[in-house]
Structure formats: C-alpha cells, structure tokens
Automatic annotation (TrEMBL):
It comes from the Bacteria. It comes from Akkermansia biwaensis. Belongs to the HMBS family. The keyword Transferase applies. It is an enzyme of class 2 (transferase). This is Hydroxymethylbilane synthase. Keywords: Porphyrin biosynthesis, Transferase. Its cofactor is dipyrromethane. It catalyses: 4 porphobilinogen + H2O = hydroxymethylbilane + 4 NH4(+). Residues 7-227 form the Porphobilinogen deaminase N-terminal domain.
Amino acid sequence: MTSKNTLIIGTRGSALALAQADMVRAALSALHPGLDIRREIIRTTGDRRMDVPLADVARVSGIVDKGIFIKELETALLEGRIDVAVHSLKDVPSELAPEFRLPAVLPRAAAEDVLITKEPDWNGRGTLATGSVRRRLMARTYWGRQLRFEDLRGNVPTRLEKLVEHPEWDAVILAKAGLERLGLYAPETVVQGRKLYMRPLPVEAFIPAVGQGIVGMECRASDRKTKELLAGINDVETCACGVAERTFLVRLGASCSTPVGVYACLEGDELVLRAAYYVPGREEPFAVVVCGDRNAPEALGILAFEKLSPN
Ligand SMILES: NCc1[nH]cc(CCC(=O)O)c1CC(=O)O
C-alpha cells in the first residue's frame, strides 16, 4: 500500500468501470471503516483505440497478445500510482504476469447475454451488430445462417444509441451485468425516443464469456497488506466459478479474441461448467458440460478441456 491508511483504487473511466470501482470501494469500507480509499482514473489502450475493431486493437497497438483494457492499470500498479486495479474479469487475461495477483472477486451479477431489439418478437432475420466473435458464432448457431453482422464497439450506453442510430440494424447483444449495473436493464425501454426490447438469452445456448458478470481486483504480488485487505471481501463461490472458467481457458490456450464461451455455476453442492469452442471452418462448436466438486474448481476446468468434443 502507498501509505499506512490510504488505499488507491485504479479504474477505467467508463460509467460501468466507475460503477464497479464504487462497488469495490463500498465493500472495502464496510469492512474497514477507517480506511481512506481514493480513486484514480486510468485511460487504457482499449479506451483510446476506438478507430479499429476490438479484435485488432492489440495488434495495431503493439500489445503482444492480450489485455488491452488492463495494461495501463498494471503499469500504474507497478509504479505505485494505485494499489488495486478494478476490472471486469472478462477483460483480464487468464494468466497473470508473476508480479500480479487477483486476490478477490465481488459476488457475481447475472452472467448471461441479453438480446436487445427494435421489434418485440425478433426472429433472427436481418442484422445483428456485435464486435464479439463469440456472440456472432453463437448467434449463427442459434438463429441460422441468414443472419448478417455489423461491427459494434463503444461503452454500453453508446452501443444502445448506435442501435437506434442505424436504421438497418435490428439487434445488439450485451452482457446483462453491465446493463444492470448502469440501471439500463428493462424488458422494455426507450433510447433516444425509440422503443427497445431486452430479453436474456439462455446460458445453455449462449454460453457467456469467461468471467462475465464478475468484478475482479488485482494488486501487486509483493503487496501483502493489500492482498489481505482484498482477501477479506472475496466471494468464495464466485471465485470458484471464475477459477474453473479461467483454468479451462488456459488449457485451451485461448486469448481474448478466441470464440469460446465458458460458464460455471453452483447447482446445489456441485460446480457445473459449460463450454463451447468454435474452430475455423466448422459451424458447430466443440461443446461440453461437466460437474464436480465445488472445492476443486481447477480440476473441473481441466476435466472440461479433456472432455471437449464435437457438438
Ligand atoms: N467486453 C466489454 C465488457 N466487459 C465487461 C462487460 C460487462 C460486465 C461484465 O460482463 O462483467 C462488457 C460489456 C458487454 O460485453 O456487454
């Protein structure tokens, strides 16, 4: 920690990132009322490079493999400008560099994707705008080959506005967690005078991205005090799900642009993990559902990888 009783939380500047940083601040101050918690906004490559499709940002920015939304936050951690970096776990590469730790996650919000349309009973005819390769491929499996796609980037409110601004677009897909945290989730809503409909997609068909709905907290591996503070607010169940999902991704050798969905949740006392993985030239994904001991999430991630088979 920077000084004895001060903790600096680093966050991206988007409305969603700020809401998530506030959730972390609230959880920490509930447990440590005397702690002086400050907030520092850090601009990341992912925020700056709005001119290229998301899948290409890392390459054109010279970031070797992944983590376009977290690199600058990690630099700020190393330089001691912040003590904690708050992330959507979905944006964090599954393997951290040895200088960093992720000692805590907040309780998971809704993990599923939400379909947002202009028509109440949209049936998959027309154009879906999404920058996510995973969402495109799953949408094709779900609605069929006739579906057309457009690229879509920007933060959550912007993506809703872009749907309204493009008359030829019929639908977008967003994470329910982000919509909810911004107070934007509603079965029916009005954006710029236009009515929009939101409907959650079933996780069995639309398997969420790794870590979707989870807020993670990263700190320096050498910072024992912050590690302990964060461990105090860690949600154990969410953590088990996140570990199972991320272990699966490491085994798969996936990067953030790999079209893969993986979602773990507790059903009774068991941890259930679903995954679907698309390879080029093959329409149907490789898919798997496994369950196992909630206290052995890594073993479940590995088992899922070993059992992955053609759908
Ligand atoms: N890819 C950007 C991103 N990273 C995290 C969320 C939403 C919040 C979450 O999943 O925890 C989003 C927006 C989206 O995919 O709709």
